[in-house]
Amino acid sequence: MHAKDTPPAGSAADGGSPFMDLPQREGRRVPVIGVCAMDGKARSKPMASVLERLRATGRYEVVFFGEKTILDEAVEAWPACDFLIAFFSRGFPLAKAAEYARLRRPFSVNSLERQFLLLDRRMVLATLAHAGVPTPRHVVASRDGGPAIDPAARHVVHPDVAAVLAADAAHSGEVAEVDEDTLRIGGQTIRKPFVEKPCDAEDHNIYIYYSRAQGGGVRRLFRKVGNRSSEFVPGPAHVRTEGSFVYEEFIAVDGAVDVKVYTVGHTYAHAETRKSPVVDGHVRRNIDGKEMRFSTELTAAERDYAGRVSEAFGQRVCGFDILRADGRSMVMDVNGWSFVKGSEEYYDEAARVLDARFQEALRNRWLARFVDPDAVGRATYESRWVLKAVLDVCRHADRTPKQKIKCVLRSAPIVGLLAAGGGEAMLRSAADLDRVLAALDEACDSPHTDDSAAALGQLRDVLQRKRAQTGTKVQVKPADGGAALLVLKWGGECTHAGLVQAQDLGHRMRTDLLLINRSLINDVRFFSSAECRVQSTVAAYAEAFLDAGAPAPPVAVRPDMLDAISPAAKRGMDAAKQRLRALFNHDGPLAANPHCTPELRPPPEIGHPRAFLRGICDLTARLVARMDRNFAALGPAGLARLQPDWCCNENADLFRERWTKILGDFCTTDRATGATVYDPARVGDLYDSLKYDALHNRRFLERIFMPTDEL
Length: 711
Prior knowledge:
Elements: E1 2-3, E2 24-25, E3 28-29, E4 32-36, H1 39-42, H2 45-56, E5 61-64, H3 67-72, E6 83-86, H4 94-104, E7 107-108, H5 121-130, E8 138-141, H6 159-171, E9 175-177, E10 182-185, E11 188-191, E12 194-198, E13 206-209, E14 218-225, E15 228-233, E16 245-249, E17 257-264, E18 268-275, E19 294-295, H7 300-313, E20 317-325, E21 328-336, H8 344-363, H9 373-376, E22 386-387, E23 402-409, H10 412-415, E24 425-427, H11 430-445, H12 453-466, E25 473-478, E26 484-491, H13 496-517, E27 526-528, H14 532-545, E28 555-557, H15 567-585, H16 609-642, H17 652-666, E29 667-669, E30 676-678, H18 683-696, H19 698-704
């Protein structure tokens, strides 16, 4: 959330010091890095990684302008800064940012006026040619009279570049398809295969037209959508007739990969390869869902091109694309501000280069311009749009599978466990669990009990084995007819992976807030529900979020954070479960299922809901039977070899018990009719265990369900 305060007394707005909004440290003003970009770009992980390294030197503070300020405030009200990081992306007011740079005259990492050159592909190609950087052969179809050069950028366009653009616009003439493979623009021709690019650099709908000998058709490239980056349309294809386009010779690149180059300054460049989108349009991703890229070395010529590109466009931080084919390299596109994703080595180098350049500017008295109050203006921290507070609501981290047994019991010792007045009781402590165990012993031994001996025996057996585990608890709720519903729960505790997740989130949140508004770190409060896994998550998060060695503020445990379910809501939930159970236990196709309604309709592939659940249950039963045979065949020593180390206080026997319970809960027998009843609510338990074991017991999971003769 953002808020705008009025300036306090003594601020620049009422005639006080114009430097009041600039950070002070030990009697001297700390140089400020201003980040002026759209929020999605300004607060991206790569940007945060570089800025955090610069901030960690102790030589700078970071100020984010924020979209609200950039879009709605006059440039006179924008924050003062010594070093400016500002770059164009969709929606960014580039002309306004250039006006700010002329007004305040900070040291700008990337030239704002030269960023106008990047908005038109014709301008990019002409500038590259003038800088001596090779590009694919191309012809231009200018239906708009040539690039519209912003008045703020006209003085940075070299006269030779302007002359080339004017000549292209004058000689574009009529665009005509001479034959199936040849395109003529004015007096120039180009033959397929060629690439058709909109002159608007923000338009990424790029078409590749193939020749008749290649089978014809067109591949349409676009911004990545999921795992797709292009699609092929077969058959005859005609070029687009509305708009201005650049037509480039199609280059069959070496290894079917593109090269992405990232410069920081004129001397450092990092390069990566990625699968070219022209291959099949399928994006290769790693296990984290990121596009797969691989570092590559640049040749001496390519390094020279990187320096020329950076200098020609005035962009110290810049990304561009290279095509490699038959031993030659050509620059295909220049993208402006770009950071590498996920490379710690790159972040180190980028921060080092920027730090060195900033320090050089300081040695050259760049900050002397701020001695003049007119150069800074009267904007203060208090009168800017800044992040004033953060409310962070999180679910608990990774946990062990939750398990429970519940049974309605009428034995007096069990009913006696209810709270005073017959209310619900939650029993967690060792003494409380001893009371429950004693009550179960008494009920089991009583000759007058109305409860099932098997149910009582199962509850007593499980509680005896689970009472020492963290998180084991018993809920006793009043039930109809003077009975009590006893619910025994265990599991659901934070895993070691969960604690790491919480620490990682706390560290990243701290890093972000230190960059956005470090004063927020000074007033932090933590709240938690009463669940152990939630308290463990909060404790790990708080430890990482706060300074090392700083005393952690107390965590306020709030039982009300777990809202009690109202009786009406409970009845509604129970009714929904009954409807689901009826739907999935009707023995017939979906079309004839009387319980199927518009709001309760399985996906079409589940044509027979009961048969679908029966298939899951039968598969689970076969796996459990195979597991039992493997346990008998391997013995303790063989099981230990399958997975020597276990986490979360588990072992092979507990793994077996959990999977056997899943099968037992999934498929039960109706006492009245003897019919098999499937419980669709147990699909969630099955998913829970599969996910947990895939993460924490993968070696055992992959082997214990194999055929015995393959072990």
